[in-house]
Amino acid sequence: MPRKETITKVAIVDAAFALCLEEGLSEVTARKLAAKAGCSTQPIFRVYKSMEDLHRDLFSKGVRFFSEYYDRFPRNCEVPFVDLGLAYISFAGKYPHIFRMLFLSENRFGKSFYEVLNGNQAVMKEVTKASNAGCQNPQQLFMKMWIFIHGSACMSLTGDYDLNEHETENLLVESYGAFVS
Fold first, then answer.
1. What single-letter DSSP state applies at residue 50?
2. How far apart (Å, rounded) are the C-alpha atoms in residues 174 and 140?
3. Residue 91 neighbours by CB distance under 10 Å
4. Is the pLDDT of residue 2 over 70?
5. Residue 118 pLDDT
6. What is the distance between the alpha carbons of residues 110 and 181, in angstroms, rounded to a whole number?
7. Which of 81, 87, 127, 178 has a C-alpha 20 to 30 A away from that of 114?
8. Among the listed residues 93, 88, 165, the one whose alpha carbon sits nearest the alpha carbon of residue 126
């Protein structure tokens, strides 16, 4: 009779995600993952042909994690792109290793930056909101806002961003106003 599988693919990905949260994607090695999951490396390679395949599933879990984070993030501002920007900057500060994996990595496993960000239609909702507010070119406005937002999020990773949420919101509202004019 075949041996009962004691560690599942879901358990492996969950352990890998926990390790990535703590130490970053580059530290998700077979040995460290096995220790985190409480198994040998054999079950990992029974489920995955390579660590690259595991990293692909880990990346997908990260995309879902960001989408869920954004879905739960409070919506307090009527100005387009501000709530999305606040959530993105906050995510970078709270989950720096996941942020790096999703938004600063050259390998997004076939997904563009936009696809990762817009996984739950967040960007399209904001573009529509800007269009409904009278913006003539909401896609161009998104790009201008996003360069500012992404820069702020990256600064939070390095400890160079010291604005609180209220100050950040005011800055994003002011930026929106400047870009729309």
1. S
2. 17
3. 21
4. no
5. 85
6. 36
7. 178
8. 88
Which 3 state secondary structure label does DSSP give 66?
A: helix
Q: Which residues contact 113 (CB under 8 A, 6 or more apart)?
A: 103
Q: Which of 114, 120, 128 is nearest to 81 (CA)?
A: 128
CA–CA dist 71, 83 (Å, integer): 11
Checking if the pLDDT of 181 tops 80, the result is no
Task: Share the mean pLDDT of the chain.
Answer: 93
Burial 124-157 (b: 16+ CB within 10 A, else e): eebbebbeeeebeebeebbebbbebbbebbbbbb
pLDDT digits (tens, 9 = 90+) for 55-105: 999 999 999 999 999 999 999 999 999 999 999 999 999 999 999 999 998
Shortest CA distance to 51 belongs to which of 20, 29, 18? Answer: 29
Return the CA Rg of the chain: 19
User: CA torsion, points 163, 175, 118, 161, in degrees to nearest 10?
Assistant: -20
- Look at 16-20, 43-47, 95-99, 109-113 and tell me which has the smallest mean pLDDT: 109-113
| Tokens matching residue 69 | 């984070």
Residue 39, Ramachandran bin (φ over 0: left; ψ between -120 and 50: alpha; else beta): beta
